[in-house]
Amino acid sequence: MRLDKYLKVSRLIKRRTIANEACDAGRVLVNGKAARASYEVKPGDIIELNIGTRTLRTEVISVQEFAGKDQASELYRILP
């Protein structure tokens, strides 16, 4: 699954267009490297979001095309 779609499905970012813009601006890192929106996300990847002054590190647990509101938080684990 594409990185921008994963960020939307997992509800880490509200809209896919915003996720795409964040990737283009270099504010999304995957495994320590700036990633494009077309990056293929796989379980075990470490995603780092730099939004404003806040940095959020997560580990991808599973990748699903669709996830409900209650299932979205099961797709990733927040890291310290």
Account of the protein in words:
This protein is an alpha+beta fold and 80 residues long. The chain has one domain (3-79): RNA-binding S4 domain (Structural Genomics Hypothetical 15.5 Kd Protein In mrcA-pckA Intergenic Region, Chain A). It contains 2 helices and 5 strands; from the N terminus they run ααβββββ. The chain has helices spanning 3-9, 16-24; strands at 28-30, 33-34, 46-51, 54-60, 76-79. Strands 2-1-3-4-5 form a 5-stranded antiparallel sheet. Strand 3 (46-51) and strand 4 form a beta hairpin. The radius of gyration is 11 Å and the shape is globular. The model has no long low-confidence stretch (mean pLDDT 94).
Mean pLDDT: 94
Major sheet: size, sense and barrel closure?
A: 5 strands, antiparallel
Strand order of the largest sheet: 2-1-3-4-5
What series of H and E elements makes up the topology? HHEEEEE
What fraction of residues sit in β-strands?
25-35%
Overall, the morphology is globular
Q: Quick one: CATH class?
A: Alpha Beta
Give unreliable regions as ranges: none
CATH superfamily: RNA-binding S4 domain
**Rg from Cα:** 11 Å
Please estimate the helix content.
Answer: 10-25%
Number of strands: 5
Please give the structural blueprint:
Layout: H1 3-9, H2 16-24, E1 28-30, E2 33-34, E3 46-51, E4 54-60, E5 76-79
Helix pairs in contact: 1-2
What are the key terms here?
80 residues, alpha+beta, Structural Genomics Hypothetical 15.5 Kd Protein In mrcA-pckA Intergenic Region, Chain A, single chain
